[in-house]
Amino acid sequence: MNKITNHLPTAELQRLDAAHHMHPFTDANGLAQKGARVITSAKGVWLRDSEGNKIIDGMAGLWCVNIGYGRTELGDVAKRQMDELSYYNTFFQTTHVPAIALAAKIAELAPGDLNHVFFAGSGSEANDTNIRLVRRYWQVKGQPEKRVIIARKNGYHGSTMGGGSLGGMSPIHAHGGKIDGIVHIDQPDWWSEGGDMTPEDFGLARAQALETAINEIGVDKVAAFIGEPIQGAGGVIVPPSTYWPEIQRICDKYGILLIADEVITGFGRTGNWFGSQTFGIKPHIMTIAKGLSSGYQPIGGSIISDEVFNVVAEGGELYHGYTYSGHPVAAAVALENLRIIQEEGVVEHVRNVAHPYLAERWAALTDHPMVGEAKLVGLMGSIALTPNKATRAKFASEAGTVGYKVRERCFANNLIMRHVGDRMIIAPPLVITPSEIDVLIERAKKSLDEGYAAIKAEGLFVAG
Ligand SMILES: *Cc1c(COP(=O)(O)O)cnc(C)c1O
User: Fold this and answer.
1) Probe ligand 1: pick from 264, 281, 322, max atoms within 8 Å of CB?
2) Which of the listed residues 25, 66, 129, 156 should we mutate to test ligand 1's pocket, taking the one with most ligand atoms within 8 A of CB?
3) Which residue in 113, 146, 378, 427 could disulfide with 270, CB within 3.0 to 4.6 Å?
4) CA atoms of 126 and 287, how far apart (whole Å)
5) CB 141 within 8 A of CB 311
6) What is the pLDDT of residues 298-316, one digit of tens each?
7) What domains does the chain contain, in order, with CATH numbers?
8) pLDDT tens, 170-198?
């Protein structure tokens, strides 16, 4: 029988993994040497590995397991849906109940006139849809030369060629290039790039870079601006309070479309249903994925305003779609996930319980000699590691050297906390309880202490 069980010895699983499974965002040879950690089961905020370790997941998988692991209702729904209608497409004038019900539910939850949903299989695919949508919008309006999309350096919008091009991560561009017509402006990262400016002045200046770019490119060539309300993969960069209002003003003034990439910030992560509500953004399009299904099924999409939808519809058929757009099983599971979030008050739990409880403890991490700033919006947080808090200095070692050492200690202490360069980041399941937050903080402190000791011992605690 061709069945892989969780009961093979870990070394054997690691050998098969290295021999046949090519991992995303991974140095394959490094992995083959060390062996991957094999995760075997999960419940709530807890992961189990093949060695029996019980790990607290401070990252909700990849920012996606909003309702926590192991909710059997989703499996029940998936089975029922598979038995009833395992697959049908939504091309060529056909539809099915799960896609209809999920689209209607998303339209109900989304703010303003965001009333139309185009489904994709992931966040990357949804952003590819968005590139086509905004360019098509201006074509139908008789301005086909408006096709440039302005995005931010160190933004993340996925890893397809379209999504990776919208993203502003140069290592990704270096592997295979990027598509044309995308321009990147500087990010609103005050800690690293704000110099002597106040956060507020810096936020304004970085937003005004959008206006400068529009004028340089020519407003007759610009289709849209895209940004994550809070940059996630870039290091949980929370923009200064002045940033988004100024971006909104500029998009309104020049009449360019605003895309909010809500793949992480959607579905409760920031203490509202959408990050756009937390920051007062009024987007024409939202990208969604991750928390839409809490990762129980792969599904993403674009939520589109009446205005954009109507213009694109006027143009006749849109030559775009995925075999699995609105997949019935994924849609049914996502719908059940949204039911749980809504009926169990998960967004309110973030806002009224988990965030306030974590916020105090997270902020107190700045008492640690190596922690400069601590940021937390809803349940999305970061801390900046620095050898000198007063000057916000960077380490002399290559960016990420120190962060990686702390992450290694987290790994050893059964805490999933990632590093982006020398920032440590968390985004736990939204259902995390105060006592679980205590465990997370206790392990984070222990890891910081051990990391700090190692970094000092190795002579790395020096400013660059
Ligand atoms: C994860 C992510 C994506 C890409 O989603 P995938 O499902 O991995 O394709 C896009 N945008 C943001 C903001 C993300 O965090």
Assistant:
1) 264
2) 156
3) 378
4) 6
5) yes
6) 999 999 999 999 999 999 9
7) 37-67+345-457 (3.90.1150.10), 73-343 (3.40.640.10)
8) 999 999 999 999 999 999 999 999 999 99
